Amino acid sequence: MRFPIDRDVHYRLLDKPNARETGNGKTINISSSGVLFTSERVRRLGERLELAISWPVRLDNKHPLKLVVRGEVVRFEPGRVAMQIQQHEFHIQSAGPNRSTLDTLSRPSLRS
Question: pTM of this prediction?
Answer without folding.
Answer: 0.78
